[in-house]
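Reviewer 2 asked us to include a model.

Predict the structure of this chain.
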Amino acid sequence: MSPAPASPDETAERRERRRRRLFQELALRASVALLILLFDRVYVTVTAYDEPSLLSRTALAVLLLNVPYWLLGRAGRWGRTQAYGRMLLDVAFITLGLGAAGGLAAAPFIGVYVVVPAYVGLVLSRTAALVATAASVVAYLTLVILQEGGWIGTPPRPDVGERTVAAFNLLMLAVVGVVIALLGEAYRRSRSRLARLNRELERAAEETMRLNAEIQRAARLSALGEVTAGVTHELGNLLTSAVGHLNLARRKLRGGAGDAEEHFAHLERSFEAATRIVRNALETARQPVATVEAISLPEVARRIAELKAPELRRQGITVRVDFPGDFPPVRGAPFQLQQILLNLVSNAQHALREARAPRAIEIAGSAHGDRAVVEVRDNRPGIPPAALERLFEPFFTTRPEGTGLGLAISAGIARGLGGELSAANRPGGGAVFRLDLPAERLARR
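Predicted model (structure tokens):
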């Protein structure tokens, strides 16, 4: 089942999170570039270099690149690819700067590489951090090999004092400390967001269970209403007949004992009152007409499968939904079709509890002319022949805890929609319940 589209609020929240991460990344990159630029300026002043060094030009280029980075990042396209590209460019620029600082002679400063995996761990993922670490190692080793082998030149650099090395490493320590603090804050926000989502999920699960209980309760009440309607209808016929016979008896006995007429009149009033009560009961038991619409049975089946999947997994039962792409819609009330399929899947689940593994339920659809057919199959031993004949009778059940109403209600709903619900044993083993409904194009006629 395809995921539901994100709401405008969720989309705006995700967009805001992406912008915030991009801003953090660019701010960190700009800060490191400025610090290296200032550090090199101080170093150049101390060593009496008059022209800007390659290290300074590299830091300046990294700083200025933040502008196109920001413009491209705000577009929102290929965001992860852009982030990986920025990461690899940072590794390349750092390697270029270390090469300008002497390559192997700049080994005391290679701690600057740590900034890259630290920040990509913040804005991307641990995989990106590992890729950045590997890229940094490979880039620096390649630089050293090329310089030591004489393939590229090594710029002359004066000896670096211990104070300079200490100052640079302390600077990098401060930068990495800030990055780790940002990571901690991001982790805390993620945990809070995850906890909130878990609470919402728990509330949704509780609501689903409550609605499921309401559906089952409504199903039981609906079945009782159907049975009550049938009983009261028959009772009403009997009372009407009794009133007629009473009138005949009164006419025959008229002129006899004086007090007999009074008793017969009282009985007539009682019978008439009972008839009114029965009529009121019939009106009360009559179900309102549900609004019908075109329904996608594959979607209904997938929703039921998703609803039951956690419970079925705990019991070691697999569920599979298989519908052709051109399966026609049917006309009906969504809750009625959901009730039918939920009853059928629940029955298969109960039947499979004591069966040997593997245990499986399949909801499959097929179209036959102007009929849309859904079958719920299982691989249980099958239904006993004696039970098969009575499956759709109200109050008939093979389970001690069952009410015997689910299948009776489902069959009644199917008939009300112009279809039929039937059951059979499969030749290869297991049971199959077949819901046969008119396709939507036929139901409109």
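The radius of gyration is 39 Å. The longest strand covers residues 359-368. We have added this to the supplementary material.
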